[in-house]
Design brief:
It is a single chain. This protein is α+β, with helices and mostly antiparallel strands. The protein has helices at about 10-20, 45-50, 110-125, 170-175, 175-190, 215-235, 280-295, 295-300, 360-375, 400-410, 410-415, 420-440, 440-450, and strands spanning about 25-30, 35-40, 40-45, 55, 75-85, 95-100, 130-140, 195-200, 205-210, 215, 240, 255-265, 330, 340, 350. It has two domains: about 10-100, Ubiquitin-like (UB roll) (Roll); about 120-445, Creatine Kinase, Chain A, domain 2 (2-Layer Sandwich). GO terms for molecular function: glutamine synthetase activity. One of its GO terms (biological process) is glutamine biosynthetic process.
Length: about 450
């Protein structure tokens, strides 16, 4: 079978070394628009061919975007060998991340990883290395939650239903250790740099916090993290969801992005000098200004489902503050704002991003927006110290349709993404909104059938 690049003796030796450790198969996963890894399975003795680009795909229509086209050229998966890991929950398998390429000649327009790499290069041209840390939240629940008539996600431990909230509850965390300990052990072996985990506000909701890294590496980690969480849950007879808002009375699941820039030569963070609110640099405020300027377009990626907009509300169904932003604003330690400049880390925290977001696409546009702010010295205005939900400032989009329209209209979108991506992403998301909007619900019938 033809390969894009030459097969090397070094890669043959690597295959033999892995086989000696009991590895039997390899994946070189490209990432679809939904953020899911896709790959053919390759016997380990075929690893040198895989690394040379032997595996080809027809991803349109199978990766969450586009319409299948049986006469379209195939794309090749080009593995990134630096991402190779042996999966600790199944040591027969070696994992890598791959870029989709037209025969090794140019990036595939719908490849999220290639889109992010373009913005990494743009930051490098300005002398920066972009860093990213993500705070993923998700729900873990018992399979019987899916039975017909069930109106809740049943947590793995009864203590997870403690009122008013299981957030930070030690008993809930200890009772959940059969799953949480597996995750922590796997993350330690895979060098995630885990430094904390906890029960979050929802019943059966958890968060893991781990080291920031260069933005591409962080996006690769998040792909592996989501896969790992699903596998660890299955080992415990449980299920995981990254749906942003499974039920109206549950806390939404976010994936806060903490992005910063470092000087490419010195490795020094350029966002903060010292401590306190006065320590943030002019560069930081320009970066914030750029993100705020393009916030409405960014929302189409950071909040990519119709369900996402059930999270971006001021209050939960029971009246509690949602902790999710609704206004295009920033503050220092103000968790009601879209962007926060936290006291304990020199990074811009984007609190709008939810658990369904494709990390590569969201990070690419957020970074591009921040760099636009730096290039044009965009003023973000005054930081807010009030509850921003009631502030007289522009709002984030309130629906997926509104967000997609902003995405299409923003000139920055057309600098970051290929025209084919913009067209097909918008078509896919508008169709998703149309399907949801066409459904007549029981709630509507109860409200209108006999009352009008």
């Amino acid at each position: 079978m033809d390969t894009v690049n030459e097969i090397t003796d070094e890669h043959r030796r690597l295959a033999q070394e892995l086989a000696g450790k009991g590895v039997k198969y390899a994946f070189a996963s490209w990432i679809d628009v939904l953020g899911r890894p896709k790959s053919k399975t390759v016997p380990i003795d075929h690893l040198p061919n895989l690394l040379a680009g032997s595996e080809r795909y027809t991803p349109r229509g199978m990766g969450g975007i586009g319409v299948m086209d049986p006469v379209e050229d195939e794309v090749a998966g080009i593995p990134d060998l630096s991402t190779l890991k042996v999966l600790p929950w199944d040591r027969r398998v070696a994992w890598m991340v791959a870029d989709m390429s037209w025969g090794g000649r140019e990036p595939y327009a719908l490849c999220p990883r290639s889109i992010l790499k373009k913005q990494v290069a743009a930051a490098a041209e300005l002398g920066f290395v972009a860093q990213l840390g993500v705070e993923p939240e998700f729900y873990v629940f018992k399979p019987e939650s899916l039975q017909e008539g069930s109106r809740q996600l049943i947590p793995m431990a009864q203590s997870g239903e403690i009122k008013p909230s299981p957030a930070y509850d030690v008993e809930t965390t200890v009772d959940s250790l059969p799953f949480l300990d597996k995750m922590a052990s796997y993350m330690a072996e895979l060098d995630f740099g885990l430094f904390s985990f906890d029960a979050e506000g929802g019943e059966g909701q958890y968060e893991f916090d781990f080291a920031h890294a260069p933005v591409l590496e962080s996006a690769d980690r998040l792909t592996l993290f989501r896969f790992m969480a699903r596998q660890a849950a299955k080992e415990c007879g449980l299920l995981v969801t990254f749906m942003p808002k499974p039920f109206a009375d549950l806390w939404g699941s976010g994936a806060h992005f903490n992005m910063s820039l470092e000087d490419a030569d010195s490795g020094k963070n350029v966002f903060r000098e010292g401590t306190g609110n006065d320590a943030w640099t002019k560069l930081t405020y320009a970066f914030v200004g750029g993100i705020l300027k393009h916030a409405r377009a960014l929302t189409a990626l950071a909040n990519p489902t119709t369900n996402s907009y059930r999270r971006l509300v001021p209050r939960l169904a029971d009246g509690q503050i949602s902790w999710a932003p609704t206004k295009i604003s920033y503050g220092y330690n103000n968790r009601s704002c879209m962007l926060r400049l936290p006291a304990n880390r020199p990074a811009v925290e984007n609190r709008a991003v939810d658990s369904a977001a494709n990390t590569y696409l969201t990070a690419a546009f957020m970074l591009a927006a921040g760099l636009d702010g730096i290039r044009n010295n965009i003023d973000p205005g005054e930081a807010r110290d009030d509850l921003s939900y009631m502030a007289q400032v522009d709002s984030l989009p309130r629906s997926l349709l509104e967000a997609v329209e902003a995405f299409e209209a923003d000139p920055l979108t057309h600098e970051v993404f290929h025209p084919n991506f913009i067209r097909e992403y918008a078509e896919m998301k508008v169709a998703e909104w149309d399907r949801a909007n066409l459904e007549v619900t029981d709630r509507e019938r109860a409200a209108y059938l006999l009352n009008l």
